[in-house]
Amino acid sequence: MPSTLTRRRTVAALGAVSTGLLGGCLDSSDNDPDESAPTLHLTLASIGESLREQYVVDLEASRPPWDEDAFRAALNDSSFSTQGHPPFPQSHASDPAYVQHNGTYYHLDDVVVDQERATHPVLRLYTVEGQETPDHVAHSDLPRIDQRAVQVAYMAARARGNRGGVPWGLVQRGGYVYRQDEAREASSILDDSGPSHVSYRDTVYRVEVATETFHETVYRPDVEPVTESDARLERILEAQLVDARLDPNSLSQAERRIVQQAQHDGYTATHPFPKELDSLLRKLDERAYIDGNISKDALVDADDRNVLKYGREYFDYRLRLVSGDDAN
């Protein structure tokens, strides 16, 4: 199964979209809502009945291309390092990754072993002032690496001076960083005779390329044999990832309705919360949303995602508390 960099982050993005659509959802409180009171949004996104299927990756089918070499080197205790990026971007503390090799499951990890200075070109795009359209190159006529660079730099240009989301990680230094030698060699934008302007999404942008210094981390890949048992790996992943467990049979009918609504359109309620939500939050051990100053305490973890095991199925769940002032 192909690995991705954003298994849980993709679910998070979907969850965020869901919460954005909750304005028309039913408020479960029997009383008229207090417009100044905080509102809680709960969304659930299924990740299936097997964590192993989600977190065991196929390096041959995955990106980036260097992860397979890193695994072989670590397995054979050979010298191998990556600079500026981890050897296994698929795996980190909150989103672990495993590989099955010759019947054994290995956990993918890395060790920081050094730091190096490096210089890389950075592409930034700027909107063109004035009415005359300068000579430019269309995005579709650029080499593939430049097409990607323009797409990323466009996201930064679009957000510059405006409110809105930016995919930080893709966007770096306010644009796109050409880190790989292969990318620089394939680029036409970086040529001395490269275009001064490019068009993307019906807009012409001025091209600016600057060579900048980076202090990059050097990583050594580390793989650890864990188990040969499918069932044991499931238990390991559950121990690592699951934050709460609910037995549907132990819930009241009203509590189950909350879970069902959260799976579909999302569930929302205004404080003071109905007793069935209060009870469900206690079973999830989400007491920051119940006791004390919830507007202060719960907002500390307002964007946290957690994993729920509900019966035999796993869900990413998100609780988002919106203060009354922000909701209006």
Tell me what you see in this structure.
Helix content is 28%, strand content 30%. The chain has 2 domains: 7-57 and 97-103 and 228-327, no CATH class; 118-218, no CATH class. The protein is an alpha+beta fold and 328 residues long. It is built from 10 helices and 12 strands. Strand 11 and strand 12 (313-322) form a beta hairpin. The strands form 2 sheets. Strands 2, 3, 4, 5, 6, 7 and 8 form a 7-stranded mixed beta sheet that branches. It has helices at residues 7-20, 51-55, 67-75, 144-159, 181-186, 230-241, 253-264, 275-283, 294-297, 324-327, and strands spanning 39-48, 82-83, 98-101, 104-127, 137-138, 176-177, 197-200, 203-227, 242-246, 267-270, 305-310, 313-322.
Q: Got a strand count? A: 12
Average pLDDT over all residues: 85
From the N-terminal CA to the C-terminal CA, the straight-line distance is 44 Å
What is the count of DSSP helices, taking H or I runs of 4+ residues? Answer: 10
What class, by secondary structure content?
A: alpha+beta
Flag low-confidence runs: 1-31
- Principal-axes geometry comes out as flat
Helix content: 25-40%
Report the sheet-strand fraction.
25-35%
Main sheet properties: 7 strands, mixed
Task: Please tell me the total number of domains.
Answer: 2
Gyration radius, in Å: 24 Å
